[in-house]
Structures are given as C-alpha cells and as structure tokens.
C-alpha cells in the first residue's frame, strides 16, 4: 500500500472541503483533498445548487416565452420545449465548474485523491478507489463530509419513480402529476421547475405552513404566489407511505384518500454523511442526528482533527460551509478570522425569489425585542415596473432604540442578488438610517431597499 504524508488532509471535496484545501495551499500548507466521487464540488456543484439553478433558469425562460413575452410586444409561435437539450445544458455547466476545481487544485498544488476515505487511525486515512488503496497521512485533518437527502420510513425510494432531489434533477420526461413531500426550499425550487414545464405539482407539508423557519409574512406571500402559478399546497398533511405501482406511484396520507401520481419527490431536508468514515476508530462522537461537535476553532474532541460544513450542523448552505472551511484553515495558520452566524443570507430561487438575512419578525416577537419595520414594495419601484416584475417587497427590521438593522427579508425579482447589500450593511452594524442616507442609483431594484429603510422612520417617499 502506497503511503503519502501531508500537512493537512481534507476529507470531502464539497464547498467546505475544496475551498479549505485551496485556502490552506495559499497559506503554504502541503494539502490533500479526498472525495469518493469522480468530480469534486460536492452536492452543491454536482447534484444541488448549480444544476437546480440551471433548470430553474431554463424553465423560467420557457414560462416567460409562453406567458410574458406578449407583454413586451414579442409574438412567439411554435414554441417547443426540448427537455434533452435542457438537461445537456445543465450537465455542461456542472462539468465546467467541477472541472474548474481540478484546474485550481493543480495551480495551487493541492493533491487530489479520488476514492472512499476512512480513518485508519488518528494519523492516517485509507483511501480506496479505482486505482487501489492509498494510505494518506497527515499532521492535521479536516472533516468536510457534507450531507445527503433525508429519507422517511415507509417511503420506498427507487431512484426512479420515487426519489430525492438528485433524482428530480434528471427526470427523463415531464411527469403528468408530481407529488412533492416537503414544503421547504428544495421542494419549492424543484416543484417550480416541473410545474413550469407542465407537471401538475402537489406539495404535501406536515406543518401548517410552507417554508418553515422563513419569515411568516414572506412565506404567506410566497404561498399565494405559487398557488397562482398552479402549484397545489396541502398543509397539515402527514404522509404515511409512498410506493411504486408499475409506472405509477401511490402516496398514502393520514386521514385522507390515496394520491396517485407519476413520480414522487422526497424533499424533507438533509442529514450529515458522517457514517462509515471511521470516526469511532479515532474517538470522535456524533450526536443522535450524526453531527460532529466542534469548538470555535472548528476542532473536534481530537485536537488535530477539525470539521466544517454541513457535517457540524447549523444552516446547511454552501456559502456557510465555504466560509467555515476558510476560517478553519486560517485559524490553523494563526490568522484571527471569525464567523458571524447572525449574518448568513439564505435564498430560495423560485420566481419570485425569496431572500433573508438576520432575524425574522417572528423571532423578534418571540424574544420580546422592540423593533420598527419598514416596507419597500416593488410595485413602487421604477426598475421593477420596466422589468414587469412588480410583485413582492423588501422588509427591514430595526431595533427601536438603537436603529441597528436586525433582519432584512425580500420576496421579489432578483432578491438573491439584492440581499448582499443587506448582509454587508448588517456585517458592519449598520442602522436603517445608514442605509437610508446612502445614495442608491436610479432606476435600480436596490431602491426598494432604500425605500424600506426610509419607511422604518416613517418617511418613505414613493409609498403612502
């Protein structure tokens, strides 16, 4: 068995892992990165963030051409949807970005190992791949094992008719009827894709609302909007089982009639992939859900072994994992980096987009925080009018005494891009007055943020 030693060995090539490997190499470390997949990039690049956004964009353009182009004086005849070409475009984007990681590794001198990694002892990981087995030794280790879609009992997943988000990214045809189990961001994004392409989409959610954890006001607005788009929502609905019956599926719900459909998407969250990597061998425990506990330096109970990303819990977001990976290796190098978990934006790439950073109004009420609220509607925004995208609003929540911005929530066109201004402002401890006194270019969508900041102090200009 071949044996190679490195300063740092990263187990996992997703957002936390590959980014940490590159940053560590920049800092002069001899770095290795191990991943069991043929392509680096983790769930995000391969079967998550990137391919889903590619399909969201393609399906949105199809929807626009069918229903919105006429508003601009554009007549389209003979419009057809080629699902195969759409899927090929998605795969090309994935190939380009994952291939880019290989290039970056070569440029930075990161040694890549493709194979299944498992701790052999506290100083080495055994990597088993197509080329055999290699013993990778290290002075330090960073576990960036990521996460996988959660499963449910009595849901008979076959990876075809009944599957998770990975399955739903590659349906060979448009289902006539698609059941989505779970009303969170994954279910809504992929449900939107297939709804636009012609599926009858039924979303089953056990709670009394969709988008749990999201600001409830925005969730209600989103519910109404998606319903108008043709999606059927059934809240307070517990799924008892789902099974395949030939080319059809049967979904049993508690207290209701069975639902027959062509395909089922299970979208009930994600769980850490910490099993089978040898944590028990080196004495690192996990909690009952499989998460690894770390301190502020991302160290585990074994001092020279660190962990970051989805496998340590918190918000399961690629950008959060990336920042943790960077901060982890910078602290290894003695750089006093920090992570502000109160200012991590979250985005849902439906249409309209939904973006949020900081505290929700529900959280402030529950904590008894005295706050003021300002609303900037897109209907009063000139740029939104020219785009024909007037639905939605910006909501800014600020502390009543200090005026410090506590949360910003946006539903509307390009909300995912707009939230960056709010996150930057909050990172620097901005007040709503700071945003209101900042001159925003006209006409831009960002003026809706400016209007909301003015409205906090009841001096909005373009809204009553």
**Oligomerization:** single chain
Mean of pLDDT: 97
Our estimate of the beta-strand percent is: 25-35%
Which class of the largest domain in CATH terms?
A: Alpha Beta
- How many domains in all? 3
Rg over CA atoms, rounded to whole Å, is: 24 Å
Structural class: alpha/beta
- Strand tally is 22
Structure report:
The mean pLDDT is 97. The radius of gyration is 24 Å and the shape is globular. It is built from 14 helices and 22 strands. Helix content is 33%, strand content 25%. With 464 residues, it is α/β, with parallel strands linked by helices. Strands 1, 2, 3, 4, 5, 6 and 17 form a seven-stranded mixed beta sheet that branches. The chain has a five-stranded parallel beta sheet with strand order 8-15-9-10-11. The protein has three domains: 209 residues, FAD/NAD(P)-binding domain, CATH 3.50.50.60; 107 residues, FAD/NAD(P)-binding domain, CATH 3.50.50; 111 residues, FAD/NAD-linked reductase, C-terminal dimerisation domain (Enolase-like, domain 1), CATH 3.30.390. Helix 3 packs antiparallel against helix 4.
Structure keywords:
alpha/beta, 464 residues, five-stranded parallel β-sheet, globular, Enolase-like, domain 1, FAD/NAD(P)-binding domain
């Amino acid at each position: 068995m071949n044996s190679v030693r490195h300063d740092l060995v990263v187990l996992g090539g997703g957002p936390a892992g590959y980014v940490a490997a590159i940053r560590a190499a920049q800092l002069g470390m001899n770095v290795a990165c191990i991943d069991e997949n043929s392509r680096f990039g983790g769930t995000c690049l391969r079967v998550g963030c990137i391919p889903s956004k590619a399909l969201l964009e393609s399906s949105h353009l199809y929807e626009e051409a069918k229903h919105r182009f006429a508003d601009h004086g554009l007549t389209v005849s003979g419009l057809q949807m080629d699902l195969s070409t759409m899927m090929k475009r998605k795969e090309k984007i994935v190939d380009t970005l994952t291939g880019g990681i290989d290039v970056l590794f070569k440029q930075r001198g990161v040694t890549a190992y493709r194979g299944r990694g498992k701790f052999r002892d506290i100083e080495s990981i055994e990597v088993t791949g197509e080329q055999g087995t290699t013993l990778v030794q290290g002075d330090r280790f960073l576990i960036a094992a990521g996460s996988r879609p959660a499963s449910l009992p009595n849901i008979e997943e076959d990876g075809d008719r009944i599957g998770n988000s990975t399955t739903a990214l590659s349906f060979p045809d448009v289902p006539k009827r698609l059941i989505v189990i779970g009303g969170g961001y994954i279910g809504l994004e992929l449900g939107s894709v297939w709804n636009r392409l012609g599926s009858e989409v039924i979303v089953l959610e056990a709670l009394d609302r969709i988008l749990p954890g999201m600001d409830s006001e925005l969730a209600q607005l989103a519910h109404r909007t998606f319903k108008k788009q043709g999606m059927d929502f059934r809240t307070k609905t517990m799924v008892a089982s789902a099974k395949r019956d030939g080319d059809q599926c049967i979904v049993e719900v508690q207290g209701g009639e069975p639902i027959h459909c062509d395909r089922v998407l299970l979208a009930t969250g994600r769980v850490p992939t910490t099993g089978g990597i040898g944590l028990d061998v080196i004495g690192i425990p996990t909690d009952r859900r499989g998460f690894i506990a770390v301190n502020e330096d991302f160290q585990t109970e074994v001092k020279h072994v660190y962990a970051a990303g989805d496998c340590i819990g918190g918000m399961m977001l690629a950008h959060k994992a990336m920042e943790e990976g960077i901060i982890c290796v910078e602290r290894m190098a003695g750089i006093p980096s920090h992570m502000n978990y109160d200012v991590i934006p979250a985005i849902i790439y439906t249409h309209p987009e939904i973006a949020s950073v900081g505290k929700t109004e529900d959280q402030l009420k529950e904590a008894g925080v005295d706050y003021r609220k300002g609303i900037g509607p897109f209907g009063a925004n000139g740029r939104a009018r020219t785009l024909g995208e007037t639905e939605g609003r910006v909501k800014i929540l600020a502390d009543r005494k200090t005026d410090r911005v506590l949360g910003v929530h946006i539903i509307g066109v390009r909300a995912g891009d707009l939230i960056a201004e709010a996150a930057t402002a909050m990172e620097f401890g901005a007040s709503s007055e700071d945003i209101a006194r900042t001159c925003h270019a006209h006409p831009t969508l960002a003026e809706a943020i400016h209007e909301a900041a003015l409205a906090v102090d009841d001096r909005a200009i373009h809204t009553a």
